[in-house]
Amino acid sequence: MKIYDSPQNLVLLVNVTPEEEAAIGEELGIMGCRKPGLRVIGYEMGKRDRQDLYKKGGLFSVTSRILVVDMLQSDIPIELITGILVLRAERVTALALEAFIVRLYREKNSSGFLKAFSDQPESITSGLSPLRNIMKELHLRMVYIYPRFHETVKSTLENRKADVIELYQHMTESMQTIHHAIVQCMTMTLSELKRSHATLELDDLTIESAYFKSFDAVVRKQLDPVWHKVGPRTKQLVGDLSTLRRLLTYLLSYDAFSFYEYLETLIACNTTSTFSGEKRLNQSPWMLTDAANVIFQTAKRRCYTLSKKSADRPEDVTFDDQDEWDALDDMEGIRGQPVDKPKKSWIPEGLDPVAEELPKWELLADVLQEVEEEILRHGSRTNIKGSNTVLVMTSSSRASALVSEFLSNMDPDAPKGKRGRKMMERKLRQYLFWKSKLASQSQGKKNPSHTGLKGKQNAAPIMVGKSTEGPTNQNLALKKKEEMKQARGANRRRVRGGAPSATSKPSSGGNFENTTINDDSEEIEAIVAAQNPSSLTDILIGDNDFGLLERTISGQLQDDFDTQYGLLAPEETVVVRAYSDDSDDRVLAELQPKFVVMFEPSLEFVRRVEVYKNSHPGLGVRVYFMIYQLSCEEHKYLAALRREKDSFERLIKERGTMLNPVFEDQRPKAADQFIRTISSRLAGGRKELSTQPSQVIVDMREFRSTLPSLLHASGLQVVPATLTVGDYVLTPEICIERKSIPDLISSFNSGRLYTQCELMSVHYKQPILLIEFEENKAFSLELIAETTKSYAKPTAKATSKKDTGPSETDRVPSLQSKVVLLTLHFPRVRIIWSSSPYATADIFNDLKANNPEPDLSRAIATGAEEDPDIGAGVNTAAEDLLRCLPGISAKNVKYVMSKVNSVRKFCEMTREEIQGILGVEPGNRCWEFMHGIGNMRS
Prior knowledge:
By secondary structure, this protein is an alpha/beta fold. Helix 3 runs parallel beside helix 4 (97-108) and helix 35 packs across helix 36. The longest helix is centred in the C-terminal third of the chain and has 26 residues, at 632-657.
């Protein structure tokens, strides 16, 4: 782009995100392209401003939708475009706007260049000849492939290698058990899915491919054509596969309590209907297996264990003197070894916390200790490039928040495996609060929105005191503190993936009945209820909260401000960040870290580190690559390596064997554009001349869809305009309102479709509602109504002798019934059902046959409130009178005035004549109002 930075050139950058626009503009500025550099054209820029910018030339980044409209309206000189750069070429299909842009570009400009870029080889390997199809749509004949094993790339990157230390961490025994059980459930679910649909090609679906997010899209794409025919069990299996894949990821990234809470949520959702609260009819099959029981029980043991007979346990003897503890250690011969101290006062009796920590946390602590020693060793050397900032990369924002929380609360002096004990104890405290609140809600003892700090004597197990003599000073302080917490929580910005707060958890469990959660909750509730009131207070309030509050009030915290806050030195900074897109390259360039910790593996980030190392010669980079051994994390990383290599090999093979596409001008010739068959009955198919090419007026908002591109490809001239009535105007009499299935449902719910059909009926003789389905999906409305079906078999208990009337699902009107009501209200509206956009293009060509071309100016003025041509010089009093009549509004008053010369003549018209102008229902209301029939009926 720097080469073409000149007013004599006009280069367009297409299919770019705002973040990429900023990054590319910044890089061009660094390279010297500052005046004016890369200019961004957005929706806030007017038409004339865009025309002036195009004439000045230079580098522009423009959205595909704006560029298509500017090309069709000739706002941009297509013949003067120097070239177009297309990013994300793997997304270009025949239905994409980028293919439409290239087609318009090549019609008037055959000398300009076009370059497309892609960094996703896996996306160009599915389907039949995917590389050839992309090159055909982009009108390209040459393709260049640069894999990692390319000789030039390999020799360049291997000249400067980063110091990579691979750290393989073993999972704990509990994690290995859960991991193995989840894989068993995935294998069972996948085999069950293949067994239920033997006719589909599901042989390529393996457990290895199920590790990736694209697996769900592949399965759904295969089942989309028959989705309305498959039963609820198959749909449940498809959802279970994605749930199990998430479980594998959460096992390695969530803490023990968050993972167990997620499992409990799955149990509640599987046993209770989301909407009605009744028992679900179709439960997940994997939850009924022995492997699922192993998952739930092992996940529970990672958090805590419950003693069966807590009353029979000997009372714990609390020693407050450290010397006495040392004496006991000497007697038992364990002096100097870590021993478990007595349980804290807020932990209920009978509950033994386990709070298993993730093994990678301990490994990360050791890595940071090694980095600190390395920094101290080279501290005296000032000529070393790079900063001492440590960059820790994780897979998600939630994992980043968890790692940051661990590093903030880590105890470096604690024994291995216990460094995050403080954080885990806080999560256990939140977990106990949630469980006891959940149990009290399920029993109906408490309002779900209750704060849990005030109530009657036996309202809930978590209650501060049971005194009836009035609130004490401590209770008042607790209430004030809780109100302050809630106020801060309401104003605090919610961090995605942060630790769940105690005030938000009770809302997640409202109607859990007859589930495993209640069994544990009742047991925990019984344990917690048996504790002293002071212990219950400790569950909600931290050990040091009162001391912090007193210090804040007394002003002692101000003395420690400089110690607690301020700027940190680079060697004391640890940046924890989740993997992202190209912004990771900018982070590496800005921070220039010498130490990078990949807390979770990522193939894309490995490639970025290689480029970062070679872009900064003389910079020593050490990468700590952390991975769980014999886990899905390792399998997924190795599978990603194989997929990348196989994808490039397939592309190289396809490039070597494919035939270059031959590009022909598919537009009709100049002589054929003016010849159209009028009628086969006239002189045996006589042809007559037409002065206008075949065209379709398209509303600006419709360029979000793929239909305008297909209409242009079918030979029709697409004319963009801002229409008030309809989406497409084919002829002076035919207006079409296009609705996709989601848009149709929302239009019915909002009532917008009624107004649109009313306007079309008023202004056009042949109003048409086009209902368009998606390609390669079921051409059936059963897919929409599947949620109202009931697959339950009638039982003896469910049979009732007397009819209680229609059920709630029967009272909900279906989409078919709404369409029928629409046709009854507007008899002139015709409905066309289209199976895909391709079928819609053929329908439009058939509707335009033997019909005159539409008038652009009239189509724009139709339905507009301010129309200078219609009604000029009329009596304003008569116009105001017409506006007061029912059925006449500001949108159709001009149309009525163009049909009727005076108010008197309008009042003398028959019911049928008024209905012909206003429509059936509005005309009927207007005629009855003028003739006083409504008053007589009342």
